[in-house]
Structures are given as C-alpha cells and as structure tokens.
Design a protein that fits this description.
This protein has 83 residues and is mostly helical. 28% of the residues lie in helices and 0% in strands.
Length: 83
C-alpha cells in the first residue's frame, strides 16, 4: 500500500472502468461491479493480502420511495436481513 500513488477517484465504478479500458490506469473496486467478461477487455484481480470492508445502506426512517425504489429496498431486506 505504501507504494500506491492514487491520482483520482470515481463515484461510479463503470466510469472508472472506461479509463482502465483505455489503459489510463488501474481501477480499485469491489468484485462484480463492472463487466469483466472475456469480451470486456477487463479482468478482476483480488488484492493480496485480502482487504475487506463493511458496507451500509442507509435511508430516512419515514422516507417516501418511488415504486421501483420500494421494490429495491424490499429485495435488499429479503436478501440480507435476518428473519
């Protein structure tokens, strides 16, 4: 890590992947966020030693969601919350 020289950041991994495709650098991101199929020209290589982080999804307690956002939140709850 001490030898890394970070030049920029992206909020969307897809945008960063466009720079990596053009050989303008490397993209550090979580696995499966961008297309790394054989035809994409990109490949995922895990870091060694393995690095992990906790992710949090946060929303206002009484937030009014659009129908698609409600379905998304419901799917997240069904997939990741116990019980």
């Amino acid at each position: 890590m001490s030898e890394l020289h970070l030049e920029g950041s992206f909020r969307l991994a897809y945008n960063g992947s466009m720079f990596a495709k053009e050989h303008l650098g490397y993209l550090l991101t979580f696995n499966k966020l961008i297309d790394t199929s054989e035809s994409s020209g990109l490949v995922f290589r895990p870091l060694s030693p393995k690095l992990e982080t906790n992710l949090y999804l946060v929303w206002k307690k009484y937030q009014t969601f659009s129908p698609i956002a409600s379905r998304f939140l419901s799917q997240i709850k069904d997939s990741f919350l116990p019980g």
